[in-house]
Amino acid sequence: MPSLQEKRGVRLWRAAVMVDGKMRRKWFPDDSKASMRAAAAWEEETRKQLLRQQSQTSTACPCLLYEWGRRHLDWAMGFYADKTYVERKAELSAFLGAKPAGIAADNYSSVTAEEFAGTPGEAMEYLKDQREARSGNAANKARKNLATAWDWGKANVPGWPQGGINPFREQAKYPEERQPRYVPPREHVEAVDAHLRGAALSPLGKVLDDARLQDWVMFGVFRFALARRGEVFRLAPEDVNLVGSTVRMWSRKTRGGNLVGKWVPMVPALRERLALWLKVRPIKDKENLFLVLDQYEFCKGYYGKPFTSQQHGMERWCERAEIVPAFDRHSIRHRGALDLYESGVTVSTIQRILRHSSPTTTERYLESLGCDLANTREAMERAFGAGKVIRLPVRETA
């Protein structure tokens, strides 16, 4: 994944690719979004080129599971969003460091893929251990990540076992005991919003503090655009269309992991905040709309740079507004989705607002928030009639 680095005092995008211990880097001319996309494209093409060279020159069969995990993570670093990559790395590290159940080895790192796939019950025992040590949810997460990585190895690692089945994917999922997602009361969201506004603006609308104003504007994007954290951090001035009252959100929530921008309508409250921020923001020569403005001791070195994590930011906002329990940014998205559903908005419209690629994703999302979609369908069928089964005539053959 490209990163913003300083070179001779100038911020530039730098692309970096490592495959099988070989590192290639390239600097791009500036810190613009165009350079970021060019750097991402260069990384993807260079990675493919190195993997092709590797498969052509490799004479030994790199079938050790350690090599598989290392190569897969080298590739995944530039393909997945940060959150997905961190999860995949954690699951692979835990697996490779575990002691095999029926293979004579200290850990799976020194086991070959062929030996692992040919040992009955090995994948089942590992996932069983994960369920007992962690939970059914965790075992299923491990199964998903390891099965995907195994499929990748089959397609990309020279000498990887091509026959047979994916030993992880053939394992049945464990029953899950998911805790309901926390959805803050609407009053709590409104209270934090009001507190942030009070810290940012005087009763007459005069800006009191640039950093606090930015907090209030960012909170508005989370609240009124149902934005994800990464979407807010990536926001640039050109992504805000005040004339058309739309804002463009960039996300990697796609099957291919590519950065995709989608335009979202802005309600008047959000448009007013963004219009004000575009006008009065103190730093206007940077790519990103939101930058680190606080000058606390722990973040002085990041002043004027784009956000990457903003740890405990939401927790501080809730604490200052005296809201208990504190809620995170994604809970605001939950609250908004629930408000839309309870207002009678259709699932297809909610899907577009949440920027989900599939309506099934939106249905699962709403059900995890406690929405009873099954009863909703039954009510609709009672009101409008269930679909009829049309029997087609069977053509007789001579």
Automatic annotation (TrEMBL):
Biological processes annotated in GO: DNA integration; DNA recombination
Positions of the Tyr recombinase domain: 182-381
UniProt keywords, alphabetically: DNA recombination, DNA-binding
InterPro entries assigned: DNA_brk_join_enz (IPR011010), Integrase-like_cat_sf (IPR013762), Integrase_catalytic (IPR002104), Tyrosine_recombinase_XerCD (IPR050090)
GO-annotated molecular function: DNA binding
Family statement drawn from the similarity comment of this UniProt entry: Belongs to the 'phage' integrase family.
Annotated protein name in UniProt: Integrase family protein
